[in-house]
Each structure stands twice: as C-alpha cells, then as structure tokens.
C-alpha cells in the first residue's frame, strides 16, 4: 500500500464521507424584535461514498439551510459535521474560512439553482476554472495516475460537459450573467461536476431544466455516485429523486418561536 497516494474517492472502508451529529441552527429575526427562529435541532446523518441521500419535507423545514451550513455559508449553533477529506477528517462546523475555501475548490461541490460567477468571465472558463483550481490546491489529485489536464484539457472537459447539457455553443464564450435561468443552471451544473467531488451538495439542480436536460443531470449524478461521490440533495422533482436517491431523510418540523 502506498500511503503517499491516497485516493480522494476512497475514504476508509465503512467510514462515512459525511457524519453529522446533533446539528442545530437558528436564525435571529431582527425585523421581528430579535426573535429566534429554530431551523435545525439535533440533526444527525451519515452519508457514505457512492450514496445519494435526498432531504425531503415541506417548504421551510431547513433543507437549504442544512446545505448552506455544510458548505460554510452559515455557521452552525451546535453539533459536529465530520467530513472525510483527502487530507483527513475535518469538522466542517469548526473549519476555518481558509479550510472551507480549500475544500470548496476541490473536494466539496455545491450546485444550487443560482449561479454566482465572476462578472465578464465566459461560461466555458467559469466551468473550466474549477478543474484548474482543484488540481492546483489538492496534492492528492496530482498524485493520482491521471495526466495533468492543463488549461486546454480543462477547457475541453468543460466544453464536453456544456455540450452534453445542450448549452448552445454560441453562448460558451459569453459571460453567463445574462443567460436564462435554465442556461445559468446548466453552467452551474457543469462547474459542479467537472471534477470528481468527494461531497456533492445539490440544491434543486434540475429546478429550471427541461425534461431532456433533467435526464442528463440524472446521468451525471449516477456517474458521480459510481465514481464514489457522497451526495446530499434536495430534489422537488420526484422522478429525478427516485432515479438518483438511495435514501430519503424527512426533515422534522420544529417548534414555532413564541
Ligand atoms: N438567511 C436567513 N435569515 C432568516 N431566516 C432564514 C434565512 N434563511 C432561511 N431562513 C428561514 O429558515 C427556514 C428554513 O428555510 P430553508 O430555505 O432552509 O427551507 P427549505 O426546507 O429549504 O425550504 P424550500 O423547500 O422552500 O426551499 C425558513 O423559515 C426560512 O424563512
């Protein structure tokens, strides 16, 4: 066994990629006199490599909030969120902003309905950039028996994904700021899937897509699972959910604030 070459897709046998224990989160509603709105309370979950867990429950149960806490957009109040990174286990609830940014570049991908991209960067580069950033920041990826894609190869992969997602070629060199919702979402999806993320967070990845593109996304998710990604997703489209989810986790209602 070569200890210097950890496979980022293979955590220790039997160990989950994501181990959540006792997560709690509230929002303080300043416009309502500072009242506390509890959103997550004592939430626990394990997600293994190659597994897709769908968060289900009515609107407002905290599904998106949980995803944003795992991606580091929101701080948690309590609990542990252990992530088996290629460099070892890290508690996402305690991770520093620098650690979170490094994980975002290569190991944790988040695909939401909305694209946040640097202005004036063409769609193709928005997608390719993630592949280049991952290679630059994750020594483990460089150690794998894979050729360094370099910039041209990263663009080639980006182009292949955009073509697969039926984004018109005429848009590839344009910045996505003016794209339609569905076009932006496909750029977002291509960016999320261009490198094999160890943890994929999918918040309504097919919300603005037509049936043909939904099928492409289902295939991409199935391929990511086969490659060993652990996936947490919110899929309001039941057909998509049934096609990709191994388990459903019902988000329980919490008490209303007094
Ligand atoms: N930044 C925020 N500030 C204050 N309250 C928030 C914030 N984000 C979410 N909430 C509240 O937290 C609760 C959970 O919201 P969240 O978006 O996580 O629900 P959800 O289950 O994903 O809903 P949906 O299915 O409609 O997307 C809601 O009551 C929402 O109003």
UniProtKB/TrEMBL annotation:
<dbReference type="GO" id="GO:0016829">
    <property type="term" value="F:lyase activity"/>
</dbReference>
<keyword id="KW-0547">Nucleotide-binding</keyword>
<protein>
    <submittedName>
        <fullName>Phosphonate C-P lyase system protein PhnL</fullName>
    </submittedName>
</protein>
<dbReference type="Pfam" id="PF00005">
    <property type="entry name" value="ABC_tran"/>
</dbReference>
<dbReference type="InterPro" id="IPR017871">
    <property type="entry name" value="ABC_transporter-like_CS"/>
</dbReference>
<feature type="domain" description="ABC transporter">
    <location>
        <begin position="18"/>
        <end position="258"/>
    </location>
</feature>
<comment type="similarity">
    <text>Belongs to the ABC transporter superfamily.</text>
</comment>
<dbReference type="InterPro" id="IPR003439">
    <property type="entry name" value="ABC_transporter-like_ATP-bd"/>
</dbReference>
<keyword id="KW-0456">Lyase</keyword>
<dbReference type="InterPro" id="IPR012701">
    <property type="entry name" value="CP_lyase_PhnL"/>
</dbReference>
<dbReference type="InterPro" id="IPR003593">
    <property type="entry name" value="AAA+_ATPase"/>
</dbReference>
<dbReference type="InterPro" id="IPR027417">
    <property type="entry name" value="P-loop_NTPase"/>
</dbReference>
<keyword id="KW-0472">Membrane</keyword>
<keyword id="KW-1003">Cell membrane</keyword>
<keyword id="KW-0067">ATP-binding</keyword>
